[in-house]
Amino acid sequence: MKLDLYNLTNEKVGEVEVSDEVFAAEVRPYLFHEVVKMQLANRRRGTHKGKTRAEVRGGGKKPFKQKGTGRARQGTSRAPHMVGGGRAFARRNRDYSYSVNKKKCRAALCSALSMVVEAGKIKVVENFELAETKTKAVVTTLNVLSVDRALVVDCCEGEREYTTLNNENLRLSVRNLQNFKYLRPEGVNVYDVLHYGGVVVTRAGLERLEARLKG
């Protein structure tokens, strides 16, 4: 299939050929659920921790004598049922991360990109070069492109083969915008595509993204 190619003044300057395998795949929402659930689980730090009766401070002395008070006998004031006591089943540090196989992750991302293309929410631009780091300039350009919420995908050639670098002026200009996020093609993922609902991608970024998902 072909996608329209624009310049930064929103004028159509040509077309780019893209793979149907990546940008016209079947949309499978159940894959979105599986992969997004994994992504969010992998972001959890799991540093929560409560204290058991063995870890709270105090409780070495019997709170009152065994007999004669009319109260139930107690051996420590740090038992779970006592005020100031430890938790019976305290939360522990844990790792929530798990993995979904690569083939399924690739299929989910292709489905998400295909859904964006089908909805007409993708904008391919020739390049996105900025003379300086300026958020206002990026906002003006995105308004001209008629984009109000999207991922901005671009990259520069790296020193080594098959590696890319950030377009620093673009990355720094976009980072404070609430409705936009800059990513290199290697970082494009299902959660962000669904969250932002649109994609602005340069020709170089599109080629890298397609090569990644076809490989």
Order of helices and strands: EEHHHEHEEEHEHEH
* Straight-line N-to-C gap: 18 Å
Tally of helical segments: 7
Task: Report the uncertain regions.
Answer: none
Number of strands: 8
* Biggest sheet strand line-up: 2-1-3-8-4-7
Report the major sheet. 6 strands, mixed
Strand residue percentage: 5-15%
Structural class by helix and strand composition = alpha/beta
Overall geometric form: elongated
The proportion of residues forming helix, as a percent range, comes to: 25-40%
Mean pLDDT comes to 93
Radius of gyration: 27 Å
What does this structure look like?
The protein has 215 residues and is of the alpha/beta class. It has seven helices and eight strands. Helix 2 crosses helix 3 and helix 4 (135-144) crosses helix 5. The longest helix is centred in the middle third of the chain and has 17 residues, at 102-118. It starts with a strand and ends with a helix. The model has no long low-confidence stretch (mean pLDDT 93).
Write the layout of secondary structure elements.
Layout lengths: L1 E5 L5 E6 L2 H4 L5 H15 L58 H17 L3 E4 L9 H10 L5 E4 L2 E2 L6 E2 L2 H7 L5 E4 L6 H7 L2 E4 H12 L1
Parallel strand pairs: 1-3, 3-8, 4-7, 4-8
Antiparallel strand pairs: 1-2, 5-6
